Hints:
With 144 residues, the chain is mainly alpha-helical. 65% of the residues lie in helices and 12% in strands. β2 and β3 form a beta hairpin. This is MarR family transcriptional regulator.
Amino acid sequence: MPEKDISQYLAYLLASANRRMRIGLAQSIAAEEVTEEHWRILQVLADERGRSMGDLAEAVLLNHPALTKNIDKLVARGLVQRAADPADSRRVLVYISDLGLETVARLRKSVDAHHSQIEEALGPRKTSQLKKLLETFIDEIEPH
């Protein structure tokens, strides 16, 4: 029986697509000197509601140590700030600053332009189908 080529595995295809998306996204936001992780954090915090580190880690797909390092960098740049939760002073909430809001507005334009290029390449129908397939995959396939 012939060996299966690696490119036939779904895990490989998803990893390859993720790599291409990350490279394109990194190039589109490079002018702001932020990483993809920083963009995700700022994008989530842009609603100005503040988030606990646990909620934020889940929303931006980072483990706690990685999130803490990224938040430290964003605090140092004045893009986000930490504050005690008024309801529970033992808990820390993370909020976006005014500078963070200005930055995320510029980032959003760059990210939207990057996504528009992808949609242009795939076409709106295939882009919509891909999003739906990925959402189904995320919702239905449980990690073991």
